[in-house]
Amino acid sequence: MANITPPPRLRGIWQLNAPFAVVPDTIYMAEAVRTIDEMLGLNVNILERVYTPVGLTKVEYESDVLNNAMIITLTAPGQKTVYVPSTYIASMPDDTAIAYDYVVLSIPLGAVPSSLVNSLQQTMDEVKSTVSDLIGIEPTVSINVAPSVGTVTAEQHRVNEQNRLNAIKRRTTEHAQLIASEAENERLRTIIADYEQRLTANKA
């Protein structure tokens, strides 16, 4: 059986021999690489910590002691820590493993009138279009509302709404503006073509 000892902090996709296993397609890091003597010095019961949980016995443990096996601690966010002897590592990660994270952009709007929620579709469409145009990913845009126990007076609401409306700098989408521009260009092309036709007729 091979005895593969990785360098500490190595990250990537690992392949382990049964009965040891990691979650497939998940990046683990070699959090620690320790000798058996080192772990015994830390008062760790290696047989119970590493071998017994996967169904191995003292026989396999003693075999690894003779083979100078190292005990590798593999960790991954949100996953159970894996303790594996170096003799059960089938292959170490290579440089082709790329780390991926789940990214969420959030845009808190603060406390707003409940009725505003029903008029956010244009804003959601604009956010979706902008993200797609800038980074090439078409996101799912959703609304999350946290109910508030607070209220404001009718007069304060009127002032708040007037300030909000006054702050709006663009009231149509870029897509709508593009359609309007194309329609205007088509109108102008028709006028130009009409003038050109008249000039040609007059010369004749």
Q: Count the DSSP helices.
A: 6
Secondary structure: helix percent: 25-40%
Low-confidence stretches: none
Secondary-structure-based class equals alpha+beta
Keywords:
about 200 residues; elongated; 6 helices; alpha+beta
Short description:
This protein is of the alpha+beta class and 204 residues long. It is 39% helix and 12% strand. The strands form 2 sheets. It has a 4-stranded antiparallel sheet. Strands 2-6 form a two-stranded antiparallel ribbon.
Model description:
This protein has a domain at 11-91. The protein has six helices and six strands, in the order βββαααβββααα. The strands form two sheets. A four-stranded antiparallel beta sheet has the order 1-3-4-5. By secondary structure, it is of the alpha+beta class. The radius of gyration is 33 Å and the shape is elongated.
Write the layout of secondary structure elements.
Layout: E1 11-12, E2 15-16, E3 28-35, H1 36-41, H2 46-51, H3 58-66, E4 70-75, E5 82-85, E6 89-91, H4 121-135, H5 154-167, H6 174-203
Antiparallel strand pairs: 1-3, 2-6, 3-4, 4-5
